[in-house]
């Protein structure tokens, strides 16, 4: 009789363990994330992946390249992706078009511009007024890089419309190749391209747009309002994983960060990744928490307005949800 009871208890325990395992397995949820471009600038996102922070939260991330703000928004609005990593200006453009299901910024990843000014010739004692009379190969009109670029030029007394020849009709993916082929005296580039050009003697980094522009919600995670309502727990878990990664990046060296994200940049030498990470850490480009505050939001709209690209002024609370980030941080 005792043997039978023991067998029953053992069987029940097995069933319980199996059920819990099955239950845990079913809780893993796939989240499709579209990134506007693939860049070391987004290091905390790759740390969240490589260090298993998303996995700890029961999330499986399907990371997709959407390449361009307009394409990223199209993918999000058409349910091709669940969450977008893109500049906050895109949410304002969508809102201004009368969207019935607005796109909400819920977790900030980068807090400065991520581009650098690269000159074709080596420049001694660089000053911004040296751009006057030059040909400047900028970024796509209406995107954050171009708007920040114009904002910084104006800040230093250089009118991008009259003081230089501004080229901004080249596709994002082709800008670096255009400069390498001989177009422009100066170009605005992301890393690691800027450092690669410097190593190869194709250009020289002379200034940082991130240092000059101040804090701005340059790249944030956003999703449709309806997705947050229907998947609030998923968004909370996602934000928690990002916050863990942000603190990890903040407390680890550039070398350690480079080693963590290297699998996502197989064609980039590890020492170059480290150089780029150090540069971004030094200028405070990586947000240390996911909260997009009102001051940053207003700075964004000032930059958009100065560039003539702000379709309508939008209050912080309309397109920004800080409740989720604040809740995660307070845990």
TrEMBL record:
The keyword Signal applies. Keywords: Signal. The keyword Signal applies. It comes from the Bacteria. PROSITE patterns: PROKAR_LIPOPROTEIN. Its main location: periplasm. It is found in: Periplasm. PANTHER family: ALIPHATIC SULFONATES-BINDING PROTEIN-RELATED, TAURINE-BINDING PERIPLASMIC PROTEIN. Belongs to the bacterial solute-binding protein SsuA/TauA family. This is ABC transporter substrate-binding protein. It comes from Bacillus suaedaesalsae. The lineage of its organism: Bacteria, Bacillati, Bacillota, Bacilli, Bacillales.
